[in-house]
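Hello again, I could really use a second opinion on something today. I've been staring at a protein lately and its backbone has me curious. Can you walk me through what the tokens say about the fold? Take your time with it, there's no hurry, and the full record follows here:
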Amino acid sequence: MAEVVIVNGPDAAGELAADLIADLVRAKPEAVLGLATGSSPLPVWHSLAERDVDLSRVRGFALDEYVGLPTGHPESYRAVITREVVDPLGLTPSLVRVPGDDGGPIALAGESYERAIIEAGGVDLQVLGIGRTGHIGFNEPGSSLASLTRVKTLTAATRLDNARFFESPDEVPMHCITQGLGTILRARHLVLLAFGEAKADAVAGALEGPVSASLPGSVVQLHPNVTVIVDEPAASKLRFADYYRFAWDNRHNL
């Protein structure tokens, strides 16, 4: 079972996740982080930027990237990762990768990215959000639980959710390159964040429902080391919320 932590809000969640990352990097300065974009991880990056920890030797691998945006587009995930993670945290840009950034053909981008992650020693800690459809990364419903990095077509719901970052919904790319669910499962520690009532169904399904390709986030149930950090609204449909609170409050009473 995942360790589920229910907190008062995104700031508290960011503090907790940042503690996990800071502890990892202090113990392993060349740690490999899996970097997620979107609104859920932002409190983590903001909190981590305030820590006295040197992240310059950390390697990073982004979860996904749009296909078809021009180089330098402000909403490409390369630009977002640079703006929200690399620059504020003092990461070394050359040590941070996004899918498809090797300049090769799109058809081979997934295989190339998988190879780069393996050559780096694998991801030590992967930060994740979860979408309303239950997707993690851009693994939409129906994604194979064993999938690796590949090109995917985005659902209308995901494109609509991301339209707020573009001038119009029509500008949101239809395709992406995303780490697969099998790729994500190879990370040594998964940290999943979710906030708000709109995520409650996805969170409950992912943590307490059946493991199913219809709800890709449920794949976290197959991982031995998962920390889920959610606020009260996102936790509102969890059947075992009282147990999660009890377990967290008594974690040191061993």
Remarks:
- Residues 55 and 91 are 6 Å apart (CA to CA).
- The chain has a mean pLDDT of 95.
- The first helix runs from residue 10 to 27.
